[in-house]
Amino acid sequence: MGSVFELVENWQHFLLPYEQAVNELKVKLRGMRKQFQDQARHSPIEFVTGRVKPVDSIKEKMVRRHVSEDRLEKDMQDIAGVRIMCQFVEDIYAVVDLLRQRTDMQILEERDYVTNAKPSGYRSYHIVIEYPLQLVTGEKKILAEIQVRTLAMNFWATVEHSLNYKYQGEFPEELSARLQRAGEAAFKLDEEMSEIREEIKEAQSMFSYRKKAAWESNEKRDQENDNDLERPDRGGGAQ
User: Over its length of 239 residues, how does the chain's per-residue pLDDT go in tens digits?
Assistant: First the structure.
């Protein structure tokens, strides 16, 4: 690989495997969620998003972390990023266990910021994986970061990320303190939801059952209508 400036001219080619990895991981993780739903079981996965780190962010991080172009693929673990949102804190660890059991990826590192929050108040569970891609040129192993968090944690992190752009990471002391308090409040909400999670899951299960029954009824009605259209006209029609 050439200099950083030569690499910049080939970003699209360089990032293509990362885009493929993100797309494949999203499909697989969403497939896991659907398997739980098809079995009428509570899914620890609420929804899944993913992205490839923007070029400007990669370049900025290369400078900030002193990452050379020849070490980029090895030293920058989050060029490919996938985020899994959960309803409950317990779901986070259920998802982590599911990922540990998979044979189509290798976990290289785990960082539990749920139990051990960052000083800023940030909470999430980070997993760095090595994911094998099948390319026309052969197998290529890609590093990717999977973040697992609750909806409340994600709300806090999204707000903090937006403020980071404004203050470039140098928050005023009062704002930093308020963010920390907000992070604790968000986690307190998660703890309260965990206390009543069985009630919530039961209510959601009842709703899902009714929704599925209505969907199956509509499917049956659609099929009957299709069958009616396929029957020959017995009225004779126009002569």
Answer: 445 545 556 898 999 999 999 999 999 999 999 999 888 888 999 999 999 999 999 999 999 999 988 899 999 999 999 999 999 999 999 999 999 999 999 999 999 999 999 998 999 999 999 999 999 999 999 999 999 999 999 999 998 888 877 777 678 888 888 888 989 999 999 999 888 878 877 776 766 655 555 545 555 555 555 555 555 554 444 44
Count CB atoms within 10 A of the CB of residue 157: 20
Tokens of 224: 């009957």
Reference 37, options 239, 205, 224; nearest CA is 205
Q: Of 74, 73, 81, 90, which Cα lies nearest the Cα of 146? A: 81
Our CA dihedral for 221, 223, 228, 231, rounded to 10 degrees, sits at: -160
Phi/psi for 45 (5° steps) reads -100, 115
pTM of the model: 0.80
Architecture of domain 4-195: 2-Layer Sandwich (3.30)
The string of DSSP codes covering 87-143 is SSHHHHHHHHHHHHH-SSSEEEEEEETTTS--TTS---EEEEEEEEEEETTEEEEEE
Residues 45 and 149: their CA atoms lie apart, in Å, by 10
Q: Active-site residues: which are they?
A: 145
Place of tokens 């005023």: 172
